[in-house]
Hints:
By secondary structure, the chain is of the alpha+beta class. It has eight helices and 23 strands. The strands form six sheets. Strands 10, 14, 16, 18, 19, 21 and 22 form a seven-stranded mixed beta sheet that branches. The longest helix is centred in the N-terminal third of the chain and has 22 residues, at 23-44. This is YbbR-like protein.
Amino acid sequence: xxxxxxxxxxxxxxxxxxxxxxxxxxxxxxxxxxxxxxxxxxxxxxxxxxxxxxxxxxxxxxxxxxxxxxxxxxxxxxxxxxxxxxxxxxxxxxxxxxxxxxxxxxxxxxxxxxxxxxxxxxxxxxxxxxxxxxxxxxxxxxxxxxxxxxxxxxxxxxxxxxxxxxxxxxxxxxxxxxxxxxxxxxxxxxxxxxxxxxxxxxxxxxxxxxxxxxxxxxxxxxxxxxxxxxxxxxxxxxxxxxxxxxxxxxxxxxxxxxxxxxxxxxxxxxxxxxxxxxxxxxxxxxxxxxxxxxxxxxxxxxxxxxxxxxxxxxxxxxxxxxxxxxxxxxxxxxxx
Length: 336
């Protein structure tokens, strides 16, 4: 019973295939493939232009020479030829790298230049005789070098770093914190700091570590070209300290007394920085080390006012938004 059912199924499927692949369909399919072939041949026989690229490498660099400004790593050029050759050039591994001999193009002092004509000549060796290079894209085919002259230069952050709400950037560390810069003497003398590529980092509350590229110099090379950077955010707190008021620009024969003699100074500081600020050993109160509040005798003498303005002219590192609790105080000037 099952064998009979299978035979009927096979017979039905065979009839279906015969109806599809009948003589008329096969003729249609043949002419479709034939016309597609003619179209492809005509298309590939047309002339086209397309851009390609070849790797560019320098060889023969002596051990005592440091290349401070490299050639471009690729040469981009446009080729005109029949479509089938353009399609062939588009295959992987069609072009081999171009090798430039350092000694052939170096001036022996500090610079070298590779003529575009020399590059084009090497590219032509890898092209069919029917192919024509219509253009070589403008690239950097010059290089600079020195014979090991260098100096150590510190690394600094370039960009904006904004931690999360109620945090501030307490510290930035680099590993290494300095790099060796290789360049000619005139270039080295002008380089005092190496900056990172511009950074835009925001909304973080934990220590953040990342690897960053260093900005490139013209005719100079940094080793290493990348560094690790650690960003340390800290929680902001509102604090205050009592600071003595100091008179400045006073004549030698006069003394100024202010009432009060001290003023409360409010400021914002990170919690970690606050721990390291000097405090009274017994009371644990914050000492006014690094803060300076002054009144200016010359300003008072000109104004003849009953009260004198006070100014905060210095504060410790890491402290921000510093302001006195009051802006004016009473005073008394006495003769010595």
